[in-house]
């Protein structure tokens, strides 16, 4: 074989990805990016503001990518991302933000109408008078709960995390998660009842909303 | 098991988070206590209404793009 000029020790260009980075990038794309919608919804619930939610998710992914090496393979990547987002949220908004538990109903209404068009389809439920409840009413009922209840219901019922994962995210014992879910669901139930009553139970196609 | 104990286990019963022993005790109690039985059914319904009717938003495409781009660049 003719010997070629010695190019072996020329360093790689700095703006291309190294092999290691390529593998990391691929793993990140496979593991993390698929949870973007779930994270965005969680961020919306926390911030009640599409722009803030956008920023929060973006910063979460930036951190996650930077520290992707510290993610334990085989564990729940979604739970890991949610935890990062929650921490980010606390650092960013909680310090000088609204008091927990106080909800601005007009804000929720505005917020809902702003981004209503992008809603995804949900299956209908044939559960007695709940049939008459509209998606936005359920959303409003959940949003109006005190934050400690809203959060566990969202993490458990919507995102499907286990109690152990939730306990880790909210930094409370599992017993606390249990009781918050119990009390939160009771409270939510009574709010849903109010909505259902307001619009009449037995109407099948309840379209009249203000 | 009495009502107070059953209520402490209520959410975990709804979410399938009870141990076998807890599950047995809970089931035994709600068979004979209509109050707790109803609470259990209501909690189940509440969970399903949330799961099925909550609005899920799609992340804006600009956000998705920026995150895809993020993992394209070396840190």
Write the layout of secondary structure elements.
The complex is a heterodimer of chains A (210) and B (75).
Chain A: H1 19-31, H2 36-47, H3 50-66, H4 77-94, H5 105-115, H6 135-143, H7 147-158, H8 163-170, H9 174-199
Chain B: H1 3-14, H2 20-32, H3 34-53, H4 61-70
Helix pairs in contact in B: 1-2, 1-3, 2-3
Structure overview:
The complex is a heterodimer of chains A (210) and B (75). Chain A has helices at residues 19-31, 36-47, 50-66, 77-94, 105-115, 135-143, 147-158, 163-170, 174-199. Chain A has 210 residues and is mainly α. Chain A folds into two domains: 19-97, Rna Polymerase Sigma Factor, Chain: A, CATH 1.10.1740.10; 100-210, Arc Repressor Mutant, subunit A (Orthogonal Bundle), CATH 1.10.10. In chain A, helix 6 packs across helix 9 (174-199) and helix 8 (163-170) crosses helix 9. Chain A is elongated. With 75 residues, chain B is an all-alpha fold. Chain B has one domain (3-70). In chain B, helix 1 packs across helix 2 (20-32) and helix 1 runs parallel beside helix 3. The interface between A and B is large, with 58 and 38 residues.
Shape of chain B: elongated
- Class from secondary-structure proportions of chain A: mainly alpha
Distance between the termini of chain B: 57 Å
Count of helical regions of chain B: 4
Low-confidence stretches of chain A at least 5 residues in length (pLDDT < 50)?
A: 98-103, 116-131, 202-210
Order of helices and strands of chain A: HHHHHHHHH
